């Protein structure tokens, strides 16, 4: 499909509030998308990153997750409003292109691609770390390589298999967290196990207070907490392959509040009540550590398997997203045409393959800096992922303004409280970015952002120059020689 065909299809469907026919197979049903939505954000950020956040903020990390969770809900409802207006796989990139200009669409598509490449590195890094629980002798880079190759093979089968695998990955995570909450309640209320004598909700304020590191310590954890929620927007990328997106996606988005309440806030309240926050340390899963303190080594092993599954699930989702984002860019003339190719099963194999090749850089990172790899990639992933949220919010504000003026049809799933909730979310993200500049561990991502922006700027100018040159060349050829009735009109920025 050429860029002019995409434009025509876009215009034909835009008035009807529908997405263009992108060539994908609609193989994702309600059951699968619901579990992708539930499990999408239950990954490394919660299972591994929470250990560092707890050590920095103490029990007040619960408040940080609650506030960020509210902001995430505002973002998801803004995304939901856009998805019901026009559900497409390009999602954030496509909305940025339509409402903020072709350059923003270009930047968003490539930045979200980078986000998932880096996140894939993060997740296989975490998975390799979890393997050390059972065997310290296996090099971290070896485990990362094996996981990357295996997940790539899974993504070459079909979108239905991907959805089914994610369903069971998510089912394992959800079941495990509910089980951990129930066991923790049993320890606190009934007093069984080694930790039963000391377990108490008073741990939330007894060991230095609710803010043992001060409010400043809590604020400095916000970028870690934001990272934990990255990937909640993944349901937007599934829009082009959902069987009934206008019915399924609102249901998935509306599960966000209780997902956050149960799986993040509820789980952390129980864990921090079973044992004191002072027990937890960076680099160690707080869930695994809690079971060790309870005196159930087998339980700790089970939890370690679950968090391993969570990391692999997130990496699998990353491979899914990167191929779709590269194809959207290519279809709009903002990426190599090679990425427009679909396999007979409707899979963007070239885009996925190139993305996995980039993820293999993570194997090298694990080989060079096995101790620091996780911190590096968390910072890069956070700033890249937050850009997608910013574009979602800005696009929703522009869309709402146009819809209110009657220039576009109203969405069937309006964001409550908008535009004020979207403005608040944008301000909050801005504050987190400022705090990242203060944190030495996170500052590296801000150093990298201008470099990435410069690369994108050069790339975009190169595409515009090539596109303009192609238009001029076509204009110099008579229409009778090309078969075109209106030459020089098929270039797209």
Automatic annotation (TrEMBL):
Residue spans crossing the bilayer: 35-54, 60-79, 99-121, 141-162, 174-195, 215-239, 260-280, 300-320, 347-367, 373-397, 418-438, 444-463
Chain segments carrying region Disordered: 1-23, 474-493
Name where it's found.
Answer: Cell membrane
Q: Has the keyword Transmembrane helix been applied to this entry? A: yes
Q: Which GO terms describe its biological process?
A: amino acid transport; transmembrane transport
| Stretches assigned to the Amino acid permease/ SLC12A domain | 33-466
Arranged from A to Z, the UniProt key words for this protein are:
Amino-acid transport, Cell membrane, Membrane, Transmembrane, Transmembrane helix, Transport
Residue ranges of coiled coil = none
PROSITE patterns recorded for this chain? AMINO_ACID_PERMEASE_1
Q: Where is the composition biased (Polar residues)?
A: 484-493
Q: Name one GO cellular component term.
A: plasma membrane
Cite the record's Low complexity compositional bias ranges.
474-483
Q: Name one Pfam family in it.
A: AA_permease
InterPro entries xref list = AA-permease/SLC12A_dom (IPR004841), Amino_acid_permease_CS (IPR004840)
Task: Give membrane topology per the record.
Answer: Multi-pass membrane protein
Entry similarity comment: Belongs to the amino acid-polyamine-organocation (APC) superfamily. Amino acid transporter (AAT) (TC 2.A.3.1) family.
* Protein's name in the database: Amino acid permease
């Amino acid at each position: 499909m050429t860029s002019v065909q995409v434009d025509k299809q876009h215009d034909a469907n835009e008035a009807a509030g529908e997405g263009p026919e992108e060539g994908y197979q609609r193989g994702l049903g309600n059951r699968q998308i619901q579990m992708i939505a539930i499990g999408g954000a239950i990954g490394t950020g919660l299972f591994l990153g929470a250990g560092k956040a707890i050590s920095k903020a103490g029990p007040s990390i619960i408040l940080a997750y609650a506030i960020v969770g509210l902001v995430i809900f505002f973002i998801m409802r803004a995304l939901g409003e856009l998805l019901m207006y026009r559900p497409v796989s390009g999602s954030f990139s496509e909305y940025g292109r339509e409402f903020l200009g072709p350059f923003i669409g270009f930047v968003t598509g490539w930045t979200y691609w980078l986000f998932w490449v880096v996140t894939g590195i993060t997740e296989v890094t975490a998975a390799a770390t979890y393997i050390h629980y059972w065997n310290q002798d296996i090099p971290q880079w070896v485990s990362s390589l094996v996981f990357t190759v295996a997940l790539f093979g899974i993504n070459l089968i079909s979108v239905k298999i991907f959805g089914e695998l994610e369903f069971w990955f998510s089912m394992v995570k959800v079941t495990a967290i509910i089980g951990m909450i129930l066991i923790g309640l049993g320890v606190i209320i009934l007093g069984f196990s080694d930790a039963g004598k000391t377990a108490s909700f008073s741990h939330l304020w007894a060991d230095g207070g609710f803010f043992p590191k001060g409010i400043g310590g809590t604020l400095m954890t916000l970028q870690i907490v934001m990272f934990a929620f990255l990937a909640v927007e993944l349901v937007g990328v599934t829009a082009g392959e959902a069987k009934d997106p206008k019915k399924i996606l609102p249901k998935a988005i509306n599960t966000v509040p209780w997902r956050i309440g149960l799986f993040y806030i509820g789980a952390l309240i129980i864990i921090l009540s079973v044992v004191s926050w002072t027990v937890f340390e960076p680099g160690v899963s707080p869930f695994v550590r809690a079971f060790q303190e309870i005196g159930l080594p087998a339980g700790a092993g089970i939890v370690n398997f679950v968090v391993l599954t969570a990391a692999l699930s997130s990496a699998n989702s990353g491979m899914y997203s990167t191929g779709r984002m590269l194809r959207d860019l290519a279809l709009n003339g903002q990426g190599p045409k090679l990425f427009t190719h679909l396999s007979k099963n409707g899979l963007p194999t070239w885009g996925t393959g190139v993305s996995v090749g980039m993820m293999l850089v993570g194997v090298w990172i694990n080989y060079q800096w096995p101790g620091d790899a996780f911190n590096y990639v968390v910072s890069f992933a956070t700033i890249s992922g937050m850009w997608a949220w910013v574009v979602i919010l800005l696009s929703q504000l522009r869309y709402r303004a146009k819809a209110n003026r009657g220039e576009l049809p109203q969405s069937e799933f309006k964001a409550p409280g908008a535009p004020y909730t979207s403005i608040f979310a944008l301000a909050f993200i801005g504050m987190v970015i400022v705090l990242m500049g203060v944190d030495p561990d996170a500052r590296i991502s801000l150093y990298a952002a201008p470099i990435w922006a410069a690369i994108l700027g050069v790339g975009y100018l190169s595409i515009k120059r090539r596109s303009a040159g192609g238009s001029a060349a076509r204009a110099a050829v008579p229409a009778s020689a090309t078969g075109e009735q209106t030459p020089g009109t098929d270039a797209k920025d």
